[in-house]
Specification:
The chain is an alpha+beta fold. The protein is 35% helix and 16% strand. The chain has a domain of 110 residues: Arylsulfatase, C-terminal domain (2-Layer Sandwich).
């Protein structure tokens, strides 16, 4: 798996005659966790995020896109998204802008940390292919303003992981720490 758009972007087709408008194509940002929240609202749950937080003390990071699906909102409620490979944050997207902190060229390739994030405007470069040094140097200078809002979003996201620790870790085939992990578990 890769966190380039070709590795994560998938189409979604939803048909609900008489409820959702037919023949509409939406291109706003949406994640799989938004499907849970949106479908829960469609099923009559008023605020599924608050309900799960109250009843289960768990954080649901999905947004309600029901108004977007029905045509009552012009834009998706999802404005940003963090892309992970297993438990490692690889990239972050804010509107059309995406920055990669690490890259993985294909399923079998190793994760390559970046000393400087790689920037892409997904509207202008949906294949994330303008990645030569001069293109990236130009973008870093042009969109340096992105660091401030991205830092705010990142801080909020990281705080949510502290306040509501994940109930399940990411699976990994990384065996580099197998001995250390085994010893730590045995000592608990």
């Amino acid at each position: 798996m890769t966190t380039y758009e070709g590795g994560i972007r998938v189409p979604s087709v939803i048909r609900w005659p008489g409820v959702l408008p037919a023949g509409v194509t939406l291109n706003g940002i949406q994640a799989h966790e938004d499907m849970f929240t949106t479908l829960a609202v469609a099923a009559g749950v008023e605020d599924p995020v608050a309900k799960v937080r109250e009843e289960k003390n768990q954080y649901i990071d999905g947004v309600n896109n029901w108004p977007y699906w029905t045509g009552d909102a012009d834009a998706s409620a999802r404005r940003h998204i963090f892309h992970y490979y297993e438990s490692q944050m690889m990239a972050a997207r804010l509107g059309p802008w995406k920055m990669h902190f690490s890259t993985k060229e294909d399923y079998y390739a190793p994760v390559q940390p970046r000393t400087t994030p790689m920037f892409y405007n997904l509207r202008a470069d949906p294949y994330e292919s303008y990645d030569d040094v001069s293109a990236q140097a130009h973008l870093v200078q042009k969109v340096s303003w992105l660091f401030q809002p991205m830092n705010v979003l990142m801080a909020e996201h990281l705080q949510s992981l502290v306040d509501f620790p994940p109930v399940q870790g990411g699976a990994s085939f990384d065996m580099t720490n197998i001995v250390e992990d085994f010893i730590n578990k045995a000592q608990q």
